[in-house]
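Supplementary Methods S3. Input chains for the assembly prediction are listed below.
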Amino acid sequence: MTFMKTCLGAMAALAMGAVGAVAEPALIFDLGGKFDKSFNEAAFNGAKRWGDETGESYREIELQSEAQREQALRRFADGGSNPIVMTGFAFASAVENVAPDFPDTKFVIIDMVVDQPNVRSVVFAEHQGSYLVGKMAAMASESGTVGFIGGMDIPLIRKFACGFVQGVKSVTPDATVIQNMTGTTPAAWNDPVKGAELTRAQVSQGADVVYHAAGGTGVGVLQAAADEGILGIGVDSNQNYLHPGSVLTSMLKRVDVAVYNAFAAGPDVETGIHVLDLSNDGVGVAVDEHNQALVSDEMMAAVEDAKAKIISGDVAVHDYMSNNECPVK
Amino acid sequence: MDFATILQILDSTLRLAAPLLLACLAGLFSERSGIFDIGLEGKMLASAFFSAAVAAVTGSVWLGLLAGTAASLVLALIHGLASITFRGNQLISGVAINFLASGLTAFIGQSWFGLGGQTPALSGDGRFARLELPFAETLSGVPVIGPVYAELISGHTLLVYIAVLAVPATWWVLFRTRFGLRLRAVGENPAAVDTAGVSVTGQRYWAVMICGLLCGLAGAYLATGMAAGFVRDMTAGKGYIALAALIFSKWRPWYALWACLLFGLLEAIGIRYQNIDVAGIGTIPVQFMQALPYILTVVILAGFVGRAIPPRAGGQPYVKER
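Predicted structure tokens for the full assembly:
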């Protein structure tokens, strides 16, 4: 009976949605899942904030497989959703195909540049944020060895790694940075067991601070870091609360701001490339009650100094994606 | 590569091989009795979910282990019903169980915890702690033996030791007891067993339930021993690698141990060294290491290195009279 009710309710909601489709915004989560405590969850938080503030509803879907990308886009576009926000570089080819068919619908893609008149491409300066946490990692490390664990091996994740290494080397030029990627398929975003095992391997090689950019896999990284008594560094969302006292900081990538802004602008969202970096607080480091004890004043001063210099242009952090090469290893 | 590094890699090997070994022995019991089991993956996944979910709610890893094993046993029973009682196709039943487990765990997880199919992170008594074996501290000063004992043998969770001990236990049950003889006979020539007045159906159900029990342990180890909680599809193909190990070991318990350790070692090396430089050959990419278990299994199946002969009555439902 309750199932029947749910079905009827869902149908009614769908029917109403079809009638009253006055540009309801939509959000599509990537394969990591809405609650990955990281990238997608940040997007969800942005959407939720918008929903709570305006009291309006939005549509969302969590993808289960690669094949659903284009389907989901078309379904939402057909249903009159506007704008449609998608989280993740992997949507690039799908939106490339779909956008021209719906010229009146605005699409917002995060983490990728798509050159279409009705697409807003939001990109982040992850290398700058990673540079800052790299500085902190190097100052917190006693062994002179720190680690990086990426999710899927793609240029975007290399960008995180490259910024991180530059930050570490700016403090300790002869530091060792151990770099690992979890895999080469999207499953690499969701494999905490392997994340934990990679972390243990890095710890046994001497790493005492490990930074992850691996979505759901990172849950295992931070868990293993806490188990082994070393420091982890979170990414995308503020992950300091996951293991208070064992997470040095989190590299914030304000995906929530990107989603919120897009939703708030509604169908009039400005298209083109939109860069969120240190100067507009699109990236940054998280300090709260969970990691205060770990972050020294000296560290904070160094971070603030570096931040000011990057914004003013005195320090240039190399962007891996500009030429697919990293000057430091 | 120094001694400490080798020890760390072997340590990691043991951790990674344990779930494979449990699942592989599970498959061994089932297939030796003539019931093919593709559903190892699904049973592990169900157990991983229920052990993590119950451990998260009650805070006790033991209740979690119980719940996980029970879930795995239920799926094993379904497989038994479909393939023994109703004489269905064993492969199809196994595939169905994999799909069922993959969908159900995510669905139930979402409705219970609302975390997108994950369970809350486990801590404290909700996880299996690492056991420090006696004298690990005192012996660690002794050269060679000390570090091997302290690093490699001591410091694993209980289920790792159970997995290793399950190998001699399996060997003893299968090759030294009446029960084992009958179980193997049912997989080779069920008609002969039936003529002797032993229930083929009963034997096969026993085997399938033992399979469920071992898969339950494997799944619980993944969620409450290795990781700290359940994540959607967290078995990540381990059930299939266990099947490959089963074929690789030619359905024998001791060979199964070596096969699983080998596959675990390959994974551990792949994790430790992402790209391996071999003099004269060039760089071996990590993907090759990941694919190696499957490649080795195909080589074995093709008959290049000895022949792998499955139990003769495997895959066929037993029909008493026509």
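The two ends of chain B are 64 Å apart (CA to CA). Chain B has one domain: 3-301.
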